[in-house]
Design goal:
The complex is a heterodimer of chains A (112) and B (112). By secondary structure, chain A is mainly beta. Chain A is built from no helices and eleven strands. In chain A, the strands form two sheets. In chain A, strands 2, 4, 5, 6, 9, 10 and 11 form a seven-stranded mixed sheet that branches. The chains are: A mainly beta (112), B mainly beta (112). At the A-B interface, strand 4, strand 5, strand 9 and strand 10 of A face strand 3, strand 4 and strand 8 of B.
Chain lengths: 112, 112
């Protein structure tokens, strides 16, 4: 079954403790992207990748890192999380620039 | 990226057609129009996309004006399960196709 898998689904952590949210896809898609969603602010793109070893900043990249060492995985790294990174995070993948994104189920992160 | 403008909310009677407008007056010739919807806090779901011709699939129809500055998503027979936030976005299909900016969307409420 074609899917985008995010882990964990829920995470509560403390300020400053490094964490990684994983995203994996089994569709051989070239494009992968991370979004965060906050009440009243809609979906905002954090980082995106157009292929292995090709990543670029979205609209709100501060405080985040990503890597794309292999096609199927696109982890989101928070080196020193802060409470303002409390949010709902979505990973999305697309086979090309002319096809729609498939979104994961989301990761709800709380930083205290 | 071209920005999109959508009405914040709309109502529709169950069984009637829902027509959701979107303005994208600064769209370039290298950008597709995409529509997604999001139910509660689930991952957004791709609906349809188009370049300049009208498109139809099993979920909806997309009407793009000849000048490409606006579009309308049509749900032909809305059901209660179509209640969701609908996002219209524009996205490059060649260079920089990874960048996707979502706006605030339209909250569609389908009423019995």
């Amino acid at each position: 079954e074609a899917q985008v898998t995010q882990n964990p689904r829920y995470l509560i952590t403390v300020t400053g403790k490094k964490l990684t949210v994983t995203c994996s896809q089994n569709m051989n898609h070239e494009y992968m992207s991370w979004y965060r969603q906050d009440p009243g602010l809609g979906l905002r793109q954090i980082y995106y990748s157009m292929n292995v070893e090709v990543t670029d900043k979205g609209d709100v990249p501060e405080g985040y890192k990503v890597s794309r060492k292999e096609k199927r995985n696109f982890p989101l790294i928070l080196e020193s999380p802060s409470p303002n990174q409390t949010s709902l995070y979505f990973c999305a993948t697309s086979p090309s620039g002319s096809r729609g994104y498939t979104f994961g189920s989301g990761t709800r992160l709380t930083v205290v | 990226d071209a920005k999109t403008t959508q009405p914040p909310s709309m109502d529709c009677a169950e069984g009637r057609a829902a027509n959701l407008p979107c303005n994208h007056s600064t769209i370039s010739g290298n950008e597709y129009v995409y529509w997604y919807r999001q139910i509660h806090s689930q991952g957004p779901q791709y609906i349809i996309h188009g370049l300049k011709n009208n498109e139809t699939n099993e979920m909806a129809s997309l009407i793009i004006t000849e000048d490409r500055k606006s579009s309308t998503l049509i749900l032909p027979h809305a059901t209660l399960r179509d209640t969701a936030v609908y996002y219209c976005i524009v996205r490059f299909f060649n260079t920089n196709a990874g960048k996707s900016t979502f706006g605030d969307g339209t909250t569609l409420t389908v009423k019995p």
